[in-house]
Amino acid sequence: MIGIAGAGAFGTALAVALAHDGREVWLYARDPAQLQEMQHRRINPKLPGITLPQKLHLTGNLADLAITETVLLAMPMQAMRAFLASAPPDLLQKDLVACSKGIDLTTLQGPGSVMAAAGATGARAMLTGPSFASDIARGLPTALTLACACPRLEALQHLLSTATLRLYRSEDVIGAELGGALKNVIAIAAGIVIGAGFGDSARAALITRGYAEMSRLASSLGAKPETLAGLSGLGDLILTCTSGQSRNFTHGLALGAGTPAPEATVEGLATARAATRLARERGIDMPVTSMVARLAENDITLGEAVRELMSRPLKQE
Ligand SMILES: NC(=O)c1ccc[n+]([C@@H]2O[C@H](COP(=O)([O-])OP(=O)(O)OC[C@H]3O[C@@H](n4cnc5c(N)ncnc54)[C@H](O)[C@@H]3O)[C@@H](O)[C@H]2O)c1
Ligand SMILES: O=P(O)(O)OC[C@H](O)CO
């Protein structure tokens, strides 16, 4: 039996895919009004056109996840530390699989370290890679990375793979979590480039240079280059920088166009600030990421940002 904490777009999509494939899934929704709507109408408004399957059980009581062996954490990254601090102690003994893409702003830790610091004693895994919630819920073919540094990795890979959701395993948790976190920042920048009308050539340059700085920070923190080049890094970078389905890209589009951004979970904003601090501590150059952090904080105008990026000293690629 599988538990999922966080009934937003992604938690619900994973619950739908796993339940359709025959697993019994318990999905925890903390908001009573949302829970009631999902229970009565068997839908989540964030996933239009999707009916919740019978094997998907809803609960507003976290203690109900006690009957599951594995719990997926599908809340925004900045909520994970507080969630685990107040979770029932037996939840910390389960195999935990983080699905959140980001870096905790207070501790500068990724999901694996946040789970360890909270006292999690089971497997601590990360599920990440190119995937929009609605694609997963609709049963479209999707390939993801499941990273875990413990012997339970292969068992978890089988537990969470379905006919349409293909999981590749990796032991490089740091690499998988940094790829998934940092690509969101570059996606905001890619959106800014398109929103401001700088064109597709500029976006391609931005994605490439963005990947270079993602790789610099990740390798300084112990990630393997091949992980960054895989689904959790390059794969997700391509998806998020090129699709109007991405909330990070869409947020950037609005910033670039000077229009109001839609209300949504935009993980790249906090990650830009956290990554800028990590990079500064390590003396790593991350010009795109630090520019996104400054733009998000209204510390610099778009025109100033472009002038600053284009007037950096010329260097070898
Ligand atoms: N939506 C996608 O396509 C997608 C794909 C891959 C990964 N992700 C990642 O999944 C994570 C969640 O994104 P989402 O799209 O589901 O966001 P969302 O905004 O749709 O939903 C977030 C959910 O988390 C819940 N939540 C917040 N704090 C909580 C807490 N303390 N306890 C329990 N629940 C809590 C909210 O009530 C909400 O239902 C993000 O890190 C995102 O990067 C999303
Ligand atoms: O909508 P976004 O920008 O949060 O992206 C969703 C997923 O991370 C894409 O893999």
From TrEMBL:
Domain Glycerol-3-phosphate dehydrogenase NAD-dependent C-terminal: 172-306
Source organism of the structure: Pseudogemmobacter faecipullorum
Presence of the UniProt keyword Lipid metabolism in the record: yes
Keyword vocabulary terms for this entry: Cytoplasm, Lipid biosynthesis, Lipid metabolism, NAD, NADP, Nucleotide-binding, Oxidoreductase, Phospholipid biosynthesis, Phospholipid metabolism
Catalytic activity: sn-glycerol 3-phosphate + NADP(+) = dihydroxyacetone phosphate + NADPH + H(+); sn-glycerol 3-phosphate + NAD(+) = dihydroxyacetone phosphate + NADH + H(+)
Active site per the UniProt annotation: 183 (proton acceptor)
Domain of life (superkingdom): Bacteria
Name assigned to this protein: Glycerol-3-phosphate dehydrogenase [NAD(P)+]
Residues that coordinate or bind sn-glycerol 3-phosphate: 101, 129, 131, 183, 236, 246-248
InterPro entries registered for this protein in UniProt: 6-PGluconate_DH-like_C_sf (IPR008927), 6PGD_dom2 (IPR013328), G3P_DH_NAD-dep (IPR006168), G3P_DH_NAD-dep_C (IPR006109), G3P_DH_NAD-dep_N (IPR011128), NAD(P)-bd_dom_sf (IPR036291)
Top EC category: oxidoreductase
EC assignment: 1.1.1.94
